Protein backbone atom coordinates (compact mmCIF):
# COMPACT_ATOMS: atom_id res chain seq x y z
CA UNK A 1 0.00 0.00 0.00
CA UNK A 2 1.28 3.46 -0.94
CA UNK A 3 1.10 6.31 1.56
CA UNK A 4 1.67 10.04 1.18
CA UNK A 5 2.53 11.93 4.34
CA UNK A 6 2.47 15.71 4.25
CA UNK A 7 4.00 18.21 6.63
CA UNK A 8 4.81 21.89 6.89
CA UNK A 9 1.45 23.62 7.00
CA UNK A 10 0.55 26.23 9.57
CA UNK A 11 -0.37 29.82 10.26
CA UNK A 12 1.66 32.64 8.74
CA UNK A 13 1.21 36.35 8.20
CA UNK A 14 0.72 37.78 4.75
CA UNK A 15 4.06 38.17 3.01
CA UNK A 16 5.55 35.25 4.88
CA UNK A 17 6.76 31.87 3.69
CA UNK A 18 6.05 28.20 4.30
CA UNK A 19 7.51 25.01 2.92
CA UNK A 20 5.36 21.93 2.46
CA UNK A 21 6.79 18.44 2.18
CA UNK A 22 5.20 15.20 1.02
CA UNK A 23 6.95 11.85 1.38
CA UNK A 24 5.73 8.85 -0.62
CA UNK A 25 6.29 5.38 0.78
CA UNK A 26 5.17 1.84 0.08
CA UNK A 27 5.32 -0.73 -2.66
CA UNK A 28 5.97 0.82 -6.07
CA UNK A 29 8.28 0.73 -9.05
CA UNK A 30 8.45 4.43 -9.82
CA UNK A 31 6.74 7.78 -9.39
CA UNK A 32 5.64 9.91 -12.30
CA UNK A 33 3.97 13.28 -11.83
CA UNK A 34 3.93 14.73 -8.30
CA UNK A 35 1.81 17.70 -7.50
CA UNK A 36 0.13 19.96 -4.98
CA UNK A 37 -3.53 20.89 -4.98
CA UNK A 38 -5.56 23.06 -2.65
CA UNK A 39 -9.17 23.27 -1.63
CA UNK A 40 -11.30 25.67 0.34
CA UNK A 41 -14.58 24.70 1.91
CA UNK A 42 -17.32 24.63 -0.67
CA UNK A 43 -14.92 25.01 -3.57
CA UNK A 44 -13.40 22.61 -6.03
CA UNK A 45 -9.92 21.24 -5.49
CA UNK A 46 -7.52 23.10 -7.78
CA UNK A 47 -4.04 22.42 -9.06
CA UNK A 48 -1.35 24.58 -7.49
CA UNK A 49 1.78 23.08 -9.03
CA UNK A 50 2.92 19.85 -10.66
CA UNK A 51 6.30 18.39 -11.49
CA UNK A 52 7.10 15.47 -13.75
CA UNK A 53 9.95 13.03 -13.24
CA UNK A 54 11.70 14.87 -16.09
CA UNK A 55 11.49 18.11 -14.05
CA UNK A 56 8.85 19.76 -16.23
CA UNK A 57 6.68 22.08 -14.14
CA UNK A 58 3.18 23.49 -14.31
CA UNK A 59 1.89 26.25 -12.02
CA UNK A 60 -1.46 27.87 -11.45
CA UNK A 61 -1.38 31.47 -12.68
CA UNK A 62 -2.19 32.72 -9.18
CA UNK A 63 1.04 31.31 -7.70
CA UNK A 64 3.52 31.85 -10.52
CA UNK A 65 6.59 33.69 -9.31
CA UNK A 66 5.74 33.03 -5.65
CA UNK A 67 5.64 29.22 -5.30
CA UNK A 68 8.27 26.70 -6.34
CA UNK A 69 7.76 22.96 -6.61
CA UNK A 70 10.70 20.59 -6.36
CA UNK A 71 11.35 16.91 -5.74
CA UNK A 72 14.01 14.63 -4.35
CA UNK A 73 13.66 11.38 -6.27
CA UNK A 74 16.04 9.55 -3.95
CA UNK A 75 13.72 10.33 -1.03
CA UNK A 76 10.46 10.05 -3.01
CA UNK A 77 9.59 13.47 -1.65
CA UNK A 78 8.03 16.54 -3.24
CA UNK A 79 8.24 20.03 -1.79
CA UNK A 80 6.32 23.26 -2.25
CA UNK A 81 8.13 26.44 -1.28
CA UNK A 82 5.56 29.19 -0.82
CA UNK A 83 6.77 32.77 -0.63
CA UNK A 84 4.95 36.11 -0.49
CA UNK A 85 1.89 34.36 0.85
CA UNK A 86 -1.48 36.07 0.54
CA UNK A 87 -4.71 35.55 2.51
CA UNK A 88 -6.25 34.04 -0.62
CA UNK A 89 -3.67 31.24 -0.44
CA UNK A 90 -5.45 29.98 2.67
CA UNK A 91 -6.66 26.44 2.01
CA UNK A 92 -6.06 22.78 2.75
CA UNK A 93 -3.16 21.68 0.59
CA UNK A 94 -3.06 18.12 -0.74
CA UNK A 95 -0.18 16.21 -2.22
CA UNK A 96 -0.80 13.92 -5.19
CA UNK A 97 1.48 11.31 -6.74
CA UNK A 98 1.22 9.20 -9.88
CA UNK A 99 2.60 5.82 -8.86
CA UNK A 100 3.61 2.93 -11.12
CA UNK A 101 3.59 -0.60 -9.79
CA UNK A 102 1.58 -3.45 -11.26
CA UNK A 103 -0.58 -0.64 -12.65
CA UNK A 104 -0.73 3.15 -12.76
CA UNK A 105 -2.51 4.73 -9.80
CA UNK A 106 -2.95 8.16 -8.25
CA UNK A 107 -2.67 8.65 -4.52
CA UNK A 108 -3.52 11.58 -2.26
CA UNK A 109 -2.12 12.79 1.01
CA UNK A 110 -4.31 13.58 3.99
CA UNK A 111 -4.05 17.34 3.52
CA UNK A 112 -2.35 20.06 5.51
CA UNK A 113 -3.91 23.38 6.49
CA UNK A 114 -2.27 26.61 5.40
CA UNK A 115 -3.70 29.78 6.89
CA UNK A 116 -2.45 33.22 5.88
CA UNK A 117 -3.55 36.09 8.08
CA UNK A 118 -3.84 39.65 6.81
Task: Describe the overall structure.
With 118 residues, this protein is an all-beta fold. It contains no helices and 11 strands. It has strands at 3-7, 10-13, 18-25, 30-39, 46-51, 57-59, 67-72, 77-82, 91-100, 104-108, 112-117.
Elements, N to C (H/E): EEEEEEEEEEE
Low-confidence stretches: none
- Principal-axis shape: globular
- Helical stretch count? 0
Furnish the topology, listing elements before pairings.
Layout: E1 3-7, E2 10-13, E3 18-25, E4 30-39, E5 46-51, E6 57-59, E7 67-72, E8 77-82, E9 91-100, E10 104-108, E11 112-117
Parallel strand pairs: 2-11
Antiparallel strand pairs: 1-3, 3-8, 4-5, 4-9, 5-6, 7-8, 9-10, 9-11
Task: Give a short summary of the structure.
The chain is mostly beta strands. The protein has strands at residues 3-7, 10-13, 18-25, 30-39, 46-51, 57-59, 67-72, 77-82, 91-100, 104-108, 112-117.
Please name the defining characteristics of this protein.
single chain; seven-stranded mixed sheet; 58% strand; 118 residues; four-stranded antiparallel sheet; globular
Amino acid sequence: QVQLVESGGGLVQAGGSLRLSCAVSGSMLSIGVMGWYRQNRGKRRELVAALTSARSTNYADSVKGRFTISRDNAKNTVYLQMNSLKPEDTAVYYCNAEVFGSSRQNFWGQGTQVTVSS
